[in-house]
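Re: your question from the hallway

Yes, I did run it. Sequences:
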Amino acid sequence: MPAALLSRDDLIARLGDVFREHGFEGASLSAITAATGLGKGSLYNHFPGGKDEMATAVLAHVDAWFEHEVYAPLRDTGRDAEDPRQAIAAMFAAVDTYFRGGGRICLVGAFALDATRDRFAAAVQDYFVRWIAALAACLRRGGVKHARALAETIVAGIQGALVLSRALNDTAAFGRQLRQLQHQAESALA
Amino acid sequence: MPAALLSRDDLIARLGDVFREHGFEGASLSAITAATGLGKGSLYNHFPGGKDEMATAVLAHVDAWFEHEVYAPLRDTGRDAEDPRQAIAAMFAAVDTYFRGGGRICLVGAFALDATRDRFAAAVQDYFVRWIAALAACLRRGGVKHARALAETIVAGIQGALVLSRALNDTAAFGRQLRQLQHQAESALA
DNA sequence: GTCTATAGAGTGATAGAC
DNA sequence: GTCTATCACTCTATAGAC
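Structure:
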């Protein structure tokens, strides 16, 4: 067989970019073809289920990244006073990197807003439930009283920061919100 | 001429529902026809520019609502200690009503996230710029030091709360975030 | 009769599935 | 590449308020 032009990981990363850019409905197969360099035949070879399966694969990829880089470190935080603070600083750093300082939106958040949500409701809900739970566990271990409420505020704040920085076309707004949220978390830990 | 089946305001309201539900790309003319009861001929009679003009009209309608119900009251707040507090409480009440307690998303925020943003960038940016400016002016009049930063946090927080409540399929999350943000504003005013 | 809101068949282009 | 369905949109025609 001919060599694959793209590894599966590269392919999924590019699919993610297309879905982030155009949304699920707006991501036409021709846009996907242009972004990946793969013809329709190749795409259907990799994803017999079509666009639905492509989006599912991208969501699973995003989920795996957050599980490894964000949720697990938060959950594995010890009880030493400094640990939760460091874990939360690491989370904010990871988030800033992942979202390219506000230049990249959250695919899961975008899917949550439109009718796409119904198709991928389970994956969308899971992403947020697990993020909030992992962050709340870390905060609780740091002695925060209303850990669950604060975790919800921080996760919502990050999503809002992405909307705002895209709307204002100002990635600096994302950084400002991230720092404000991190400060809010650190104040609660102190 | 035949009587209009729908007033222009009703028509625009229904168009808004369709765009909120499906996004700009996902809002097909057949979905619009189904939601409005109007055939293509009627729709193109009202909006010769097609979907673009429909979305522009909806955004203008949203803008007018927020200008009248949210921005103007915030800007017109006096300098009495109680005024900014009341104006901000009124803003949160208006926001809760408009977004149906979290059951309705923000069309402008949704447009900000996908590629639609480029088409309507000016209207999208304007909505957020004016909201933040009006809220910051009110906070500043209430003696808040970093009024602009807090205003940004609150507006971003509202957008994030909408994403979260849709993602979790839990409108109660929207109410919780709204109360938290209002408390944050009131603490800064005190 | 004029004008406007209606309806919907028909256009070419393009969608996603295979 | 081929397929059918559907896309946004055009055009012609009619109904009815003035």
